[in-house]
Amino acid sequence: DGGITxxxxxxxxxxxxxxTLSCEQNLNHDAMYWYRQDPGxxxxxxxxxxxxxDFQKGDIAEGYSVSREKKESFPLTVTSAQKNPTAFYLxxxxxxxxxxxxxxxxxxxxxx
Amino acid sequence: GQQVMQIPQYQHxxxxxxxxxxxxxxxxxxxxxxxxxxxxxxxxxxIQLVKSGEVKKQKRLTFxxxxxxxxxxxxxxxxxxxxxxTYFCAGLGSTLGRLYFGRGTQLTVWP
Lengths: 112, 111
Known about the structure:
The structure holds 2 protein chains of 2 kinds. By secondary structure, chain A is mainly beta. Chain A has no helices and 11 strands.
């Protein structure tokens, strides 16, 4: 099946711990994105990458880090520097020319 | 910076009533896209509008792109309970590959 796979679906973390969210796509898309969703806030862009080994900060990059070593993979690390990490995280991939996005099912992170 | 504003934030309608959500951008957009997110789900692409003044229909859904390519609307005729969810607009701006999302309109339909 073609699509975007995010894991884990649910994750609990203690304060002060880093956590990495996985995102894999087999749609052969160049562009990949990470969004954060909080109730009533819509989708806020954390990081995006349009090509392997390159990525750009979005609107709320502080406290997060990413890598893009392979076209298929764009993992997101939520570091201990992120002050309010509890949220729903969505990964997406898409075509660079039109911007149409395909989303994964999301990862819900809860910090205890 | 570039922004896409979307109103209303919430809309509650009775089944059979119409529904409209509006998007407005501070700058001209290359295209505008609409997504639907069901409760507990992830956003799913509905449609893309590219041309100035473009109108597209999908059954009971009508999408419009303004003449200046700065605003858009989604209209649902005779809502059904299956229409429940949050509708997002997203504009493709001047930065290649960068979509700017509105905050979404959460639609509730009661029978």
